[in-house]
Amino acid sequence: MKQILRNSLSILAVCCLALSLNAQNACVEGPNGPEAPGTGGPCVNTVVSAVPFLRINPDARGGAMGDAGVALSGDANSIHYNASRMAFAEQDVALGATYTPWLQALGLNDVYLAYLGGYKKLDEFQAVGASLRYFSLGDIQYTDVNGQSTGTGKPNEFEFALAYTRKLSERFSASLTGKYINSNLASGQEVSGTVLEAGQAFAADLGFTYRNDNIRTGGGKRNKFAIGAAITNIGAKITYTQDTVRDFLPANLAVGAAYTFQLDEYNEFTITVETNKLLVPTPCDGTDINCDQDAIDDQSPIAGIFSSLSDAPQGFGEELREFTYSVGAEYWYDKQFAVRAGYFHEDNTKGGRRYLTTGLGLKYNIFGLNFSYLVPTSAQRNPLDNTLRFSLLFDFGATADAR
Questions:
Q1: What is the C-alpha separation between 336 and 361, in angstroms, rounded?
Q2: Of the candidates 4, 34, 33, 10, which has an alpha carbon nearest to the alpha carbon of residue 23?
Q3: Distance of alpha carbon 232 from alpha carbon 94, whole angstroms
Q4: In whole angstroms, what is the distance from residue 295 CA to residue 395 CA?
Q5: Is the pTM of this model over 0.85?
Q6: Which residue numbers in the chain have pLDDT < 70?
Q7: pLDDT computed for residue 129 by the predictor
Q8: Which domains does the chain have, with CATH numbers?
Q9: 8 Å CB contact between 253 and 107
Q10: How far is CA 12 from the centre of its chain?
């Protein structure tokens, strides 16, 4: 029963949500070590979790920079990456709205991510923020194990988050974010006599930022440097039934840095690098007969986070392959027009997502508009292949530091 329920929900999630469309493969021992069965290729053992929509980047600015953003300057979408960025934001109040089509290359027009975010500076040291993330999976035709129709539905998921950040010194800030998560994939449907219900969970994020905006160079120029780190989606497991079937949230560790060059009065250039790792236990790959998948699945959320740092079946080398890498660049002219580009890399054995990103930004008075576009660079399909996404931003009132 436990496996049937997992498979039923996983099929729906993978078809409509998965950040990587590679299926998890069992591995076998080959002449040169573990390999995918029947192919002789690399052993694919992706790390999976429930509610992967929490890891979809909702920000067109960061989306145009290789999905990097943990160390960028604060804006209305900071909560997704690292809420502590808000403490250094240049505006008193900011609001943002983003629309991201999903699986548009397959002709689906009713699957999308919508995101609203914003913050308010309480004073020069503190800020509060909130965000709402909504993921629509469109119209779904449900069937039973025999392929007979059991009705239609409109599965959806959402997350509501509240954040508080404070400067602990002139150049260092920390943040705490609380979240409520609701995942309604197949509420009311019955699988082998068990009625499914909406999954619910609470989670928290921790964020940290070090930022120096006063690196003086020749000619009176002031360059900027920032380091950001965040652990996101730390929370209780989620379940879609009344029994013990519970799955990990996509807890994630992100660490990044950004450096901004003030070229002259009108021109500014930023480069950022970032790495991310899911803090979710690595599943058994089939090569170790002593690996107990049930024991892995039954770990507590905190135990799962710690074990995820050293539990890869193939050792430290595989653990390193679970990190993704992003690099991005942003050029601003007169703080009114921006050009962005980036690259994202994931190992072939962990999903194989690799793509270039590009985008533009426009800002006039309090109004801003960002666009991003994803170009795949590997055979691995991405749900955002050749998709244009955009964000609207509204900034109100410069802070004393910015003025």
A1: 8
A2: 10
A3: 22
A4: 49
A5: yes
A6: 1-42, 192, 219, 244, 398-403
A7: 97
A8: 2-398 (2.40.160.40)
A9: no
A10: 19
